[in-house]
Amino acid sequence: MSVVRLGLIGGNIAASKSPMLHRTAGSMCGLTITYELLIPAERGQSFDQVFDSCRDEGFRGVNVTYPFKEQAVGRVTLDNPDVEAVGACNTVIFEAPTPRGFNTDNSGFVAAFRENFGIAKPGHVAMAGAGGVGKATASALGRLGARSLAIYDSDAARAQALADRVRSHFPSMMLILAGSVEEAMDGADGLVNCTPLGMEGVPGSAFPDGKLRQGVWAFDAVYTPVETLFVQAARRAGLHVMTGYELFLHQGIDAFRIFTGQDIDSGALRRALKTQQEAAL
Fold it and tell me: What percent of the chain has pLDDT over 70?
């Protein structure tokens, strides 16, 4: 049985389910997957040092997560226009002469949205957070035909840079820079959290509960835990909810295909992961 060495470089990743996803997908294809969690701060190294060690030690590839997705772009060759439109990289394969970078948050969001909402258009979307996952999601919303996107980020310059990038690739989508998350929510059909708020160790919600009922659908990029405060409040408000687990699943399937060349059925993988999680309880 072939062995494929993979890893995840990120900050707060101790509870990540990525190792389980890739090892399970590998077993479904007759592959042995090793998948390591690589936290630069715990290793006393910089992102670049961890990246280089993976390249030099025989890793087939790595996933990259918060807060390194934008930094990873400078270390890879981007040969896909969709990835260039995003400006953030979450999947790398180590090939000569330089590593190649991909963004499966982008492709995974499109696949997850279609699986959950069918052919519906996103409409007018309010998005909190303009970092790596925000970049991927904004580009995916452009691909899905969103009418307009209101972006709020506590770093106004980062929000402006994202709006400029998205506008250059999706000129038909109206881009709005919001001065507050409440302003971004005005008239929104979709509410999208692309901040770390809600993940383990980062309590809170990006969107105030009182204004949720005006929306139609909601998405939270956080998947650890799946039932964040935002997700729970959106369900209570009657919104159609796409959790971060959906993005996690579909971006993982796309990353696994890049790493191994193997296609995995999303339903079969979902069932296999559920069985493993239930067995662990």
Answer: 99
Answer whether 104's CB lies under 8 Å from 132's CB.
Answer: no
Check whether 1 has a pLDDT greater than 80.
no
Architecture of domain 2-103+248-280: 3-Layer(aba) Sandwich (3.40)
CATH topology identical between 2-103+248-280 and 106-245: yes
Does residue 219 have a pLDDT over 90? yes
- Give me the CATH code for the 106-245 domain, please: 3.40.50.720
What is the C-alpha to C-alpha distance for residues 107 and 129, in angstroms, rounded to an integer?
Answer: 19
Would you kindly state where each structural domain of the chain is located, as residue ranges?
Answer: 2-103+248-280, 106-245
The type of residue at 174 is M
> Does the pTM exceed 0.85?
yes
* Residue 135 bears catalytic tag: no
The mean pLDDT value of the chain amounts to 94
β-strands 61-64, 31-38 pairing: unpaired
Return d(Cα 196, Cα 199) in angstroms, integer: 6
Of the residues 69, 121, 135, 274, only one is catalytic, namely 69
Report residue 225 as tokens: 């835990």
